[in-house]
């Protein structure tokens, strides 16, 4: 173990193209990692492809897990894989639940537990749709109650 490794907090490294603004668009990735209880660190890097960023991130992470983000792709990489064979790759236009699952699977890799699957994604997507419908119903009810209170 190098001195650098001894000083570095164990975390999943997330490297993103520094020209990519805003990184907050990808907060679901971080939330997926947080849900699994694994720390992460975010670093802006020179413009490179997501796969190269992810591989550099996993090389520099004590945990050996890295995520790279460029303008087109989000890549999850693991130090034991070949540089040109990442574990997962999704589009930056993927919906938020898929981003959350990617982040969570990075953390699950660290914990050596089973990954969430596309079936899990479909279930979570259905729950999300129901929650949005419920929020809309509540909004309509509140508007009606307020309108009735004004009439009075």
TrEMBL record:
Name this polypeptide is given: Dehydratase medium subunit
Organism this protein belongs to: Marinisporobacter balticus
């Amino acid at each position: 173990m190098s001195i650098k490794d001894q000083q570095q907090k164990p975390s999943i490294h997330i490297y993103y193209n520094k020209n990519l603004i805003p990184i907050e668009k990808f907060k679901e990735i971080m939330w997926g990692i947080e849900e699994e209880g694994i720390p992460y660190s975010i670093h802006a890097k020179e413009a490179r492809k997501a796969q190269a960023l992810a591989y550099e991130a996993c090389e520099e992470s004590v945990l050996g897990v890295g995520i790279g983000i460029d303008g087109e792709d989000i890549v999850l990489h693991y130090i034991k894989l070949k540089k040109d064979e990442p574990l997962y790759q999704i589009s930056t236009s993927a919906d938020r639940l898929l981003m959350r699952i990617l982040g969570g699977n990075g953390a699950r890799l660290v914990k050596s537990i089973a990954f969430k699957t596309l079936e899990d994604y479909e279930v979570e997507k259905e729950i999300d749709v129901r929650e949005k419908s419920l929020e809309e119903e509540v909004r309509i009810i509140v508007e009606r109650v307020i309108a009735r209170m004004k009439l009075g």
